[in-house]
Amino acid sequence: MSQATFKPASLVLATLGLSLAVFMQVLDTTIANVALPTIAGNLGVSGEQGTWVITSFAVCNAIALPLTGWLARRFGQLKLFLGAVILFVLTSFLCGISRSMPELVLFRALQGLVAGPLYPMGQTLLLAIFPAAKRGMALSLLAMVAVVAPIIGPIAGGWITDNYSWPWIFFINVPIGIIAVTIVLGQLRHMPEKTVKQPIDYIGLILLVLGVGTLQVVLDKGNDLDWFDSNFIVIGTLIALVALVTLVMWELTDKHPIINLRLFKYRNFTFGTLALVMGYSAFFGLNLLLPQWLQTQLGYTAIWAGLAAAPLGILPVFLSPIVGKYSSKVDLRLLAGGSFLVMGTTSFMRAAFNTEVDFASIVQVQVFMGLGVALFFMPTTSILLSSLPHSEIAEGSGLATFLRVLGGSFASSLSTWLWHRREIFHHAQLTENITAYNPQAQQYIEQMGGASQAHFAQIDRVIEQQAYMMSTIDFFSLLGWIFFALIVIIMLAKPPFHAKASGGDH
After folding, report:
1. Where are the alpha helices (DSSP H) in 310-331?
2. What are the tens digits of pLDDT across the range 108-152?
3. Which H or E run includes 287?
4. Are 210 and 243 in contact (CB under 8 A)?
5. CA 417 to mean position of chain CA atoms
6. 85 alpha carbon, distance to own chain's centre
7. Is the pLDDT of residue 48 over 50?
8. 30 CB neighbour count, 10 Å cutoff
9. In the predicted model, what is the mean pLDDT of the chain?
10. Which H or E element spans position 362?
11. What is the rounded distance in angstroms from the CA atom of residue 402 to the CA atom of residue 68?
């Protein structure tokens, strides 16, 4: 029996087991975010030091992703997946019993490292067990998990932290992981696998760790250290740049590269990956900034900001299976293009918000954007994998996921930086109008009871709120144009888009 002809006893159970493991891993990327102040307080460190709980996971996760292809060939896809789930459960438990910040950061780093193969391997195994005609359905289910888990994360993290204690945001992975391993082992243990003993590209690995690790630290600390006014950021950027340029040159000439950049010779992989990375980065930046704006400028609590953002996941839950079922009958470029059209339109709808916007209006736009999200992940993933030979799907999935995660990291730092920079620009412009020569400004001050330090402080708070509102409008408008540009990019892919057993068009 070959892997292509293998079928699990229950396709539903096998899908459930694989999806559970992926859900657990994706959930963990956001569940700790709202608990950071509590964790930092309990472990006796500053809030800034507490952010290393997030950074350590992200750095190691990004580094581990490109190793997925080599590990899958060396140990087998199923063994790698099960091993990653078991180690993820173990490191989650160790995070929960940590009693100091260095301990927690170390175990979070290990957790990020072992989490690397989970998403690409979950995707590869799903594609392997589903019939070719139903692979769109498999990718849709995984896409639904990838969208819903990060939304549930902050709400679940806040609720667990408020009602129990922060270690439970890690302990919750233990039963989920055990159930996932039991189901997947029961359904896929007889799945045939080929392993290949390939030498590991140590030079590439060192350059990858140095380049990505340094870049992630630079992105994470850039805002705090005022970017290139800091020697630490300048030196870190130079190290990352030299390491990554050398990495690209090395990987293109090495016989067994740790990152197979030759996959970009396939047209659909190139344009599909570009659309996935840019689309996800814009989506990530939007979902990072919206709750931040609601909390800092409109007075929302963390839970209410989470509830305002959460309706984004409603339509994907219902539409993803339908999109997967009928995707084979539609040009996937039209679905992905429709996704970018909806997400671009909703970005411009948010750009029409003002400081008086109500909860219902925010929720309505989030629900509508869910339509775009439902059409995003499955079509773009199908397009980028469509022309790859079957033997390179695991590697292609790992590389695309690596670039997507890296894109999210860029978006995280650049979105916050851009938002604050535009606020400073608008604040300065608005303040210029508060002069003795502006009748409206003088009338406003007189209505407050005359010029005083307290009144000027109050005026400054109003200006700051309006400056952030204008900055938020700028940001959402920029995202709108990015999403619209992606419609053109995805149209450059070439049909057919349904995975083949062997090579594809370049």
Report:
1. 314-326
2. 999 999 998 998 899 889 888 888 777 777 777 777 787 778 778
3. helix 267-297
4. yes
5. 18
6. 20
7. yes
8. 21
9. 85
10. helix 359-374
11. 10
Locus of tokens 């000027």: 456
User: Going by C-beta distance under 8 Å and a sequence separation of 6 or more, which residues neighbour residue 158?
Assistant: 34, 35, 302, 303, 306
Q: Does an H or E element contain 380, and which?
A: helix 377-386
The whole-angstrom separation of Cα 464 and Cα 296 is 11
Residue whose C-alpha is closest to residue 169's, from 292, 363, 28: 28
CA distance linking residue 182 with residue 82, whole number of Å? 10
Show Cβ contacts of residue 436 under 8 Å, excluding neighbours closer than 6 positions: 442
Six token digits for residue 25: 């891993």
- SS3 for 255-278 is CCCCCCHHHHHCHHHHHHHHHHHH
pLDDT, residue 349, reads 96
Measured between alpha carbons, how far is residue 300 from residues 176, 291, 423 in Å? 31, 8, 20
180: closest CA among 22, 11, 398?
22
The DSSP-derived string for 438-481 is -HHHHHHHHHHTSS-HHHHHHHHHHHHHHHHHHHHHHHHHHHHH
Say what the alpha-carbon torsion angle 182, 187, 190, 191 is, to the nearest 10 degrees. -110
d(CA 375, CA 483) in angstroms, rounded, equals 13
Instruction: Give, in order, the Cα–Cα distances in Å from 267 to each of 200, 276, 340, 505.
Output: 27, 14, 20, 7
pLDDT of residue 207: 94
Sign of CA dihedral 293, 297, 298, 299: positive
Residue written as token pair 């952010």: 51
Helix (H, G, I), strand (E, B) or coil at 412: helix
Q: How long a stretch of residues is the chain?
A: 506
Q: Once rounded to an integer, what is the mean pLDDT over residues 437-461?
A: 70
Residues 229-284 have pLDDT tens digits of 899 999 999 999 999 999 999 999 888 888 889 999 999 999 999 999 999 999 98
C-alpha–C-alpha distance, residues 484 and 479, integer Å: 9
CA angle 204, 209, 213 (to 5 degrees): 145
Range with the poorest average pLDDT among 9-13, 345-349, 443-447: 443-447
Work out the burial of residue 86: count CB atoms within 10 Å of its CB; fewer than 13 is exposed, 13-18 middle, 19 or more buried.
middle
Tokens of 157: 């993290």
pLDDT at 471 > cutoff 50: yes
Structure tokens given for 11:
């396709």
CB–CB of 298/350 below 8 Å? no
Write the single-letter amino acid at 254: D
Residue 334 in contact with residue 361, Cβ under 8 Å? no
